[in-house]
Amino acid sequence: MTKQIRSLTRALNVIETLNHADRALSLHQLHQLTELDRATLLRILATLMDAGWVYRSLGDGCYRLTFQLREMGTHIRPENSLAQLASPILEALQKKLHWPSDLMIYNGKRMEIIETTRRQSPLFLPQGFMGYQPYMLQSATGRAYLAWSHPNDCKVILQRLQREEGPDANLAHDEVWVQKILEETRRQGYAERDRNYFGGPDDSNSYEVNVVAIPIIVMQEVQACLNLTWIEELVQPEQLEEVFLPALRAAADAIAQRLLTHELY
């Protein structure tokens, strides 16, 4: 009888567990599901990450299967592939500017954070959270997505917002205001969040937060949006045009190129 390789069996168990999960899994969740002790599990995960099979998110520290496994038929969510490809670029952007960025996609209802460098930024106390969904018409990322989407796609999104309840619905009914905001956004080349918007994970009564966002465009379609968040009183006004926006655009272009190279669009 051929002897089994226990370490390989355990590694395959971890991959199978991640493959069947409908979300990323923390170390504790993997420990409970696989019944492997934490030390063994950490060694397996480290090996799988080195081999390019598993990816650990910057934003929540959870584990996901990598986009390289798509061709093997494993269950890889497109947003996980996007987040994995973008994470080195986001990390480099945060090290350069020190302020955190979020990578967001449109999930069919709102923009949603799929990766973030909030945990890596030493200058930002609120951590925010993966999966957070800001309002479309008040957030910088929502405005960026709408402004650079195809007009027909933008129209459909606005019509859906009009049928809902809440701030987005009220604003979406003011079509003149919406078009003015989107035209101004395209003209200046980036989106800003509504100055009256308050209630997100970054907001505080102690300081004012500012956010800008730009689209990540591949094959003439908006694939995601990238933002930058900072505390207003700690940044000089000229830094936006001279430092922040050039770095943000370079990062968005680099992410778009990686998506194009790997045909993830």
TrEMBL record:
Transmembrane segments: none annotated. SMART domains: HTH_ICLR. Residues 5-67 form the HTH iclR-type domain. The keyword Transcription regulation applies. GO terms for molecular function: DNA binding; DNA-binding transcription factor activity. Pfam families: HTH_IclR (PF09339), IclR_C (PF01614). Keywords: DNA-binding, Transcription, Transcription regulation. It comes from the Bacteria. Residues 68-261 form the IclR-ED domain. PROSITE patterns: HTH_ICLR, ICLR_ED. GO terms for biological process: negative regulation of DNA-templated transcription. PANTHER family: DNA-BINDING TRANSCRIPTIONAL ACTIVATOR MHPR, HELIX-TURN-HELIX TRANSCRIPTIONAL REGULATOR, ICLR FAMILY. This is Transcriptional regulator, IclR family. It comes from Marinobacterium stanieri.
